[in-house]
Every structure is written in C-alpha cells, then in structure tokens.
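Obj: model holo form, ligand = 6-O-phosphono-beta-D-glucopyranose.
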Amino acid sequence: MALPKDIEKIKKQATVFVIFGATGNLAQKKLFPSMFALDKSDLLPEKLKIIATSRTSHSTQKFQDLTRESVAPNDAKKWQNFSQKIEFIPSDVSENKNLDKITTRLTEIEKEAASCIKVILYLAIAPTIYEDAFKNIGKHKLNFGCLVHKNRSRIVIEKPFGYDFASSQRLNSQIARFFEKEQIFRIDHFLGKGTVQNILAFRFGNEIFEPVLNNDYVDNIQITFTEYGGIEKRGAFYDKTGALRDVVQNHLFQLLAIATMEEPQSFGHEDFRKRRIEIIQSIKKIAKSDAEKFTVRAQYEGYRNEENVDPKSQTETYALVKLFLDNKRWQNVPIYIRTGKKLAGDVASIIYSFKEVKHKVFENFWQNPMPNHITIQIKPAEGIGIRLVAKKPGMTTQLEPVDMEFCYRRSFDIPQLDAYERLLMDVILGDQTLFIGEVGASWKVIDPIREAWDSGKPPLATYKPGSWGPQEADQFMMREGHVWLAPYLTICKI
Ligand code: BG6
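Output (holo structure tokens):
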C-alpha cells in the first residue's frame, strides 16, 4: 500500500509504459484518463514516456488529438504538458507486426536517459489474443526490460484471464515461459477501489463487528452489482463473455473473498492473496444438475439488436448465483451474488443480513420481522450502514427500523482515487498486493455453471431494461424465504 515514501520512489523511477490496444475502450476510458489525473496531481515518474500502440495506424499528433477528445476536452494547458509524454507506434501484437519498432524505440529512450528504465507492458487488448501476444512479446525480448536482472519488464493483464479452467491453465503456462511471477500484474480493478479496501479496515481495524460475522449470527449475505448502462460498444467482447465471466468470476468473487476471509497475517501481497484464495477454494461447486436450483440467468430485451451481437444470442446480461462456503465460519450461510446490465440503477454492495432473533420483551410490539443488516456500499455512494431497530417517539412502544451510516463524503473531504489511478501507481512501484494471483480456483466454480447454462439449464429468462432484473430472480429469493435488500437498503443518499 502506497506510503509517502513510495510516492517519492515512484517519482524517481524512470518508466516507459507500452500500451497495447491504445485506441480501444479500456485505454481511452480508463487508462489515459487515470494517467492524466495522476499527472495533474504530480504523482507520475519525473521521467515517463508512454508508447501507445494499436493496429489502427495514426501519427503521434493524431493519436494525441483523438485521446484528448475523450480524456481532456476542456483542459488544454494541462493536456499539453501530459501529451508530450505520449508517442504512437502502430503495431499488431497478435500478428507480430512492427514490434521491432517498439524495441528500437525503447533502446533509444534508454540511451537518451543514460540509465535503465522500467518497462511496463499493458495489454489493453482482447483476451482472445493474449496467447499470441505473450509469444510475440517474448520473440522481441520485450519481457527482458533493460537486461539488468532486477529491472525486468512488468506485464499488466486485464481480466478475464482465460475462458474456463483449461484455457486459464494454458495461459498460465504460456505467460510463465516469458515472465516470472514478480513480473505479472493481473488486474482486477475492484481491488483498487478505496471502499473495497475499506472493508479490510472495517473488519480488521474494529473490534465490534468481526465477532458477529459468522454463521452463528449471519443469516445470509447478498452481493449486488447492478449497472444502469448496457454493453455500449463492446458487443463483440461481451457476446462471447457474458455476465458470469465478465464480472462474477473476478470482481464479485474478489468482493466475496474480502467480505468473508479470515484476517491475514499482514497486508503483504502473499498473506493477503492467501486469504482470498482460501475463500475461492472453499466455494462449494454447483453440480450441473443443480444449476436450476442455484442460479438464474437472463438477458435484457433488445440485447440481440445491439451492435456486434448475434441476433440469436443466448448470452446472459444478468446472472444470479447462490453459493456456500465450505469452511467453519460460513458453513450453511447462503451467499447470493447477482449482477446485470441495463438495470434500474448503479448499485454495488455487500449486505450481511443477520438472523432474526425473537426478543421476548418486545414480542407484542412489532408485526414484521426486523433483522439487523450491515451494508457495505460501493455505489451509488460510498459508505457503511447498520440497520437497527429503534423505539418510535410517542407514548406507545412501537419499534421501527432505522439506519446508522458512515458516508465517505461526509467524513472525509478528499475524493476517492479512481481504482486505475491507484493500481497504475502500484504497478510502477512493483507492489502486487492489490493484484490477483492464480485464477484456476475461480474457474473451477464457474465451469459447471457455464456448462449447465450452455445446455439450456435453467432457461434464459428476459427482463425489461430499466427494471431490477427478471421476475425469476425475485421468485428465486421468495422461494429462499428472503427478499433482495439492495437497493432498498441504499445508504448515504444524496
Ligand atoms: C469491467 C466489466 O471489468 O467492469 C464491465 O468488463 C463493467 O462490463 C465494469 O461495466 C464495471 O466497473 P466499474 O468500476 O465501472 O463499476
């Protein structure tokens, strides 16, 4: 985790980012805006170059103009300063075209700097071409950095890493031919979100919550990640991926891990990773024959008319899975994970719903059950809420649910860093704490669900854009004897 002295270290670290896929969605929407924001806050290395590369050919000037439009349309002066660091070299990393130009340019930059530079290769490309990219990067020795052992290149890879267990293992062995563990940064940007890291502070920096976060007290856990937006221009990627692979296998499993893991010995990357992996390994596999009992999948109406989507597509844009962990602390506590595109709003939260205890003294004073809940909310606003019961003012004893809230924006007047800003700094520093390791265990959970879904079980439901999802998901919860708590427990309202 970045300390003030780490920032000094970052600033002194001569660095070149090589961004593959520089004209794509990720680079334009996340990477360049984050780098620009870091530059404005003076947090980037003093000696920094960004080699942007993609198959579409541009001059450096044209690429800079194009990027400026999406990153800083109204910030001409600051952009001018930042854009001088960007150069464009057209190349095709999957077809091995023009990579020699990148190698040559790196050598020149090193000569100009008269010192070793840290090379960071960022693959903002389609995961389907990772394997070829590793090979071609290896052919051109881009993995070597400046040949001084301790200054080898780093490679940053986006999720999904693989398509299923087998492909993730194949990719692992491919990448291992060219890169050592310390060089590999697998990004799951949810780990870079400040509120997600705050779950650790909430759980392990306080005394009063951890003793009740277990199956003696918690009835169920609900992890919700709903998006108002659709698939935008990403039809080609999304239609092959679907919600389960796009966000459940990675982002939502990481949230689950942080919400349920045991306290790590330290926040060093080995200890923290170990605890997260333990949780993923403890998820009970859903047998293919049980998929109808444990999952719901659905597609929003109109999805098949989206650009680059198969008109007969069976891809889910909504996924619900009920999971159990096979460990002592969480045995028999159902964990409901759901996500979807084009829903009624942007919500990301973890809710621990507590068991309902019949308090004898109040027996006659409430009609409806009022269990306690703890909500950790990432969206729409960041905070933590506790739903409890209070006596309504008045002569009679009437109990009502109320919320106690901690809201980031009320307690701190510093905005949260964007997840990518934080993670890019960690890559420069070489800190792997907020990056993921081996991903095989999560694919082992996903694969049987995927297999069942691909064989039509359960059938693909549909839902209206702007709704909270398919009716099947509500009926599912009703059968479980629960209701969805998000968004009804939304806290820190504006
Ligand atoms: C990405 C998914 O990893 O995360 C997208 O591919 C999703 O489909 C996005 O929209 C959500 O991230 P955030 O940080 O915008 O909530």
